[in-house]
């Protein structure tokens, strides 16, 4: 069912390479199609967005209906059940409580000579959030709305727009609309995929442009964000989902198999890996995967993921397990260990760490509070989870007194001249009244 591989070995290295190289953005034909979409939206605006929406999502979508009306959102809020709203509100409180600790503030410092320096921290003017509709709008990623909008709101962004692909009849899933209303999304548009991202970046007649775009999506969304980065800020280029589980003799095979499948069901390119010191456990995990997979509605997708990018690596000691885990730098890292907190300091590279038998990855996806938008494909070596910082900009502030300027002027001149930037040096020298050029 799943490859069981001893590590280190040549076979292990081949498998690790296959997992590391599963990056879907390398298709030049696909990238060319996304570039064509972006150019069409930039030049044609609403007309291009409608054309693509009708072609791929809602054939009968009418002009003037890109924006979801307040009446539609009101109706959606009446349609969803009170239990759902109670769950959403609790999740919102948890996410807000966690992200409040990420808030930054402007800071300034002065010196006796009159030097005044600091940093002004301000939110971006407008942010756009992509909310995948999932299966034609029938399985919307409600949690992504919460995880992307709440940090933006806490950062102080006043204008938050959401785009999401419509269902075939042009409607939006009511649970998605109700969640968006609950977290304060100001405007919602029926626009998915690359054309929706391009509309947020450049603006159209109906969709004002934003400064930052965040949120997960399919390969078209990921490529559009990548190509538009620089025109607009983005959160990250998120690749296929991945999970890595470290397990010792105390671990339960059924729990591990269930958690591996929780990510494998996302996408045939998702990666589900376990590293263990126990060869018997590896066999038990494989048996459990076969048993549990049979009951999954998304069994075909999960099976393809496990077959291509799943593995159980068997190592001789736990230190080697952590060495390999840090090398892979997974999006989600679970510790199924007898004393997990004793090992936590060994974790160097991971998007998020889930500790113990009762902290499966979905706890973080939906409810605990930390953000579930995480670096993938090894990016945890240098990147972090989505947070308040992604919606802030920091402006340096500098003011020198005459005394401070005179103290530092000759040093600044010397450095400018070493770099061959004589006009830089001259702008300092002229303030010294030095006309000698020396």
What does this molecule look like?
The chain has about 450 residues and is α/β, with parallel strands linked by helices. The chain has three domains: about 5-25 and about 240-370, Nitrogenase molybdenum iron protein domain (Rossmann fold); about 30-235, Rossmann fold (3-Layer(aba) Sandwich); about 400-430, no CATH class. The protein is built from 17 helices and 14 strands. The protein has helices spanning about 10-20, 30-45, 45-55, 70-80, 80-100, 140-155, 175-180, 195-200, 220-230, 255-265, 280-295, 300-310, 320-330, 340-345, 360-365, 400-420, 420-430, and strands at about 5, 105-110, 115-125, 125-130, 160-165, 185-190, 210-215, 235, 240-245, 270-275, 310-315, 330-335, 350-355, 390-400. The protein has a six-stranded parallel β-sheet with strand order 1-11-10-9-12-13, sandwiched between helices. α2 (about 30-45) packs across α3 (about 45-55) and α4 packs across α7. The relative contact order is 0.14. The model has no long low-confidence stretch (mean pLDDT about 95).
List its salient traits.
Rossmann fold, 438 residues, five-stranded parallel sheet, alpha/beta
Quick take:
It is built from 17 helices and 14 strands.
Q: Give the name of the CATH superfamily of the largest domain.
A: Nitrogenase molybdenum iron protein domain
Proportion of residues in β-strands: 15-25%
Oligomeric organization of the protein chains:
single chain
CATH topology of the largest domain: Rossmann fold
Q: At CATH's second level, what is the architecture of the largest domain?
A: 3-Layer(aba) Sandwich
Task: Give the helix tally.
Answer: 17
Compute the number of structural domains. Answer: 3
Broad CATH class of the largest domain: Alpha Beta
Spans of at least 5 consecutive residues with low confidence: none
The major pleated sheet works out as: 6 strands, parallel
End-to-end gap: 77 Å
The computed structural class is alpha/beta
Please bin the fraction of helical residues: 40-55%
**Overall pLDDT score:** 95
Total count of strands: 14
Radius of gyration: 26 Å
Q: What is the topology, as strand order, of the major beta sheet? A: 1-11-10-9-12-13
- The coarse silhouette is globular
């Amino acid at each position: 069912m799943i490859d069981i591989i001893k590590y280190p070995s040549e076979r292990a290295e081949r498998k690790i390479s296959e997992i590391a190289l599963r990056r879907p953005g390398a298709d030049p034909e696909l990238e060319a199609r996304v570039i064509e979409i972006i150019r069409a939206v930039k030049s044609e605006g609403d007309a291009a967005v409608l054309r693509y929406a009708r072609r791929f999502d809602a054939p009968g979508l009418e002009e003037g209906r890109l924006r979801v009306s307040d009446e539609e959102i009101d109706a959606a809020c009446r349609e969803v059940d009170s239990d759902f709203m109670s769950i959403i509100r609790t999740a919102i409180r948890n996410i807000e409580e966690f992200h409040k600790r990420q808030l930054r503030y402007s800071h300034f410092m002065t010196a006796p000579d009159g030097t005044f320096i600091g940093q002004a921290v301000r939110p971006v003017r407008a942010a756009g959030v992509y909310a995948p509709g999932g299966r034609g709008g029938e399985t919307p990623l409600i949690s992504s709305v919460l995880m992307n909008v709440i940090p933006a709101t806490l950062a102080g962004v006043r204008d938050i727009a959401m785009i999401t692909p419509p269902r075939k009849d042009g409607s939006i899933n009511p649970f998605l609309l109700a969640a968006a209303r609950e977290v304060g999304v100001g405007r919602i548009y029926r626009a998915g995929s690359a054309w929706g991202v391009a509309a947020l970046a450049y603006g159209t007649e109906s969709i004002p442009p934003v400064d930052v775009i965040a949120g997960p999506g399919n390969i078209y969304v990921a490529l559009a964000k990548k190509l538009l980065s620089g025109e607009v800020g983005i959160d990250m280029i998120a690749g296929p989902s991945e999970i890595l589980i470290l397990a010792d003799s105390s671990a339960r095979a059924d729990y591990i198999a269930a958690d591996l499948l929780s990510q494998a069901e996302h996408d045939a390119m998702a990666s589900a890996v376990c590293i263990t010191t126990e060869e018997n456990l590896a066999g038990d995990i494989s048996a459990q995967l076969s048993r549990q997979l049979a009951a999954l509605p998304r069994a075909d997708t999960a099976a393809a993921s496990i077959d291509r990018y799943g593995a159980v690596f068997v190592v001789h000691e736990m230190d080697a397990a952590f060495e390999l885990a840090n090398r892979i730098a997974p999006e989600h890292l679970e510790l199924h260990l007898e004393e997990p907190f004793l090992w936590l300091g060994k974790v160097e590279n991971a998007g998020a760490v889930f500790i113990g038998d009762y902290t499966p990855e979905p706890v973080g996806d939906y409810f605990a509070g930390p953000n579930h938008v995480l670096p993938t494909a090894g990016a945890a070596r240098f990147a972090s989870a989505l947070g308040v910082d992604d919606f802030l900009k920091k402006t340096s502030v500098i003011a020198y007194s005459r005394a401070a300027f005179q103290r530092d002027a000759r040093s600044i001149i010397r450095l400018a001249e070493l770099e061959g930037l004589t006009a830089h040096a001259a702008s300092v020298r002229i303030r010294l009244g030095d006309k000698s050029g020396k």
